[in-house]
Amino acid sequence: MEETTCVIAGGGPAGMMLGLLLARAGVKVVVLEKHADFLRDFRGDTVHPSTLEILDELGLGARFAGLPQRHARKITAVTDTDTVTIGDLSQLRGRHPYIAFVPQWDFLDLLAEAARAFPNFDLRMRCEALSFTGDGVLYRDPEGAERRIRADLTVAADGRSSVLRAGLPLREHGAPMDVGWFRLPRVPDDPEDPILRLGTGKMMVAINRETYWQLGYIVPKGDPVEDPETVRPHVAKLLPFLAGRVAEIDAISRLTVQVNRLRRWHRPGLLCIGDAAHAMSPVLGVGINLAVQDAVAAANLLYRPLLEGNLSSRHLAAVQRRRTPATVVIQRLQLTIQDRVIAPALEGASPPPVRYLSYVRPLQRAAVSLIAKGLRPEHVQVPLAPAER
């Protein structure tokens, strides 16, 4: 049986950020990622100011800025009668008054490269976590053999379908919709900012990816959305500037929307973070950033007990106490939008008069700040291990 100090299941934003931070502090870390690389279509890739500040604190800001990306400073809502800016990030204070849209695989590659600089970091691709054993993980290696690795701490960062969190109590909040994601080419005369399109009984999201549009067609929970032939006329009606391109829709990827949260994020030797602890709705695009905040909080609270060999359940409980308020507030905001805007619209109600949002500037600024920075922004308190200075 292999041994390490911390084994992390899942090489997503939460797992990779936590692995980097713990390795930076001198903790021996193994990250298990079941895929051969990070390349997956339609993964979340909105990197908010809270995450950009963390990258700055780690000295990775300049390297991140060198990645292909687009900055969005305004979010526009379009109804049949109105076009309104519902979020203006340019008014935020700080170095990053924008949301950066970066392919998630580039973001994860950046974190992996930074983590590999530390000799106590071990990223194992094509290694799938199978179960929590009580003192580590049973996993399948690239050759298909089952192996065990023992660790003082196992972290489940393996997403909303986590296999390691089995048995922990889960509270489901539900969602009225699913999303069909697809692409269409973009031309220079197209709009610049992300678009939320609200129609009677129909909704879409359009994200500018420079050379193409990433489009999300929102349907009632469980309704079919995978047939391009059915979706094309709705896209043409909701976003007329794309009408001449809808014939190019050839594949649609379904996102089954979930909103849930573990009642307890931990058991002896195991901690859940990111989507494994709380699956978020795509509403507001905060998934990556909450996951990263979880990882930073966990690293700040756990690196010392891990180094000293005295980790206990009270340390794991402290991570949940720290991160629960921010998670609850964002989920409640998502559920309010789902229940009061999305569900009525999908049932055929007229879209709300979004133009009124422009009259409530203080409320709009507060909402933008909450989405961009979070309720309780985390900052890196993990020191660089003496051997790495």
TrEMBL record:
It comes from the Bacteria. The keyword Lipid metabolism does not apply. Gene3D superfamilies: FAD/NAD(P)-binding domain. Keywords: Oxidoreductase. Residues 3-331 form the FAD-binding domain. This is FAD-dependent oxidoreductase.
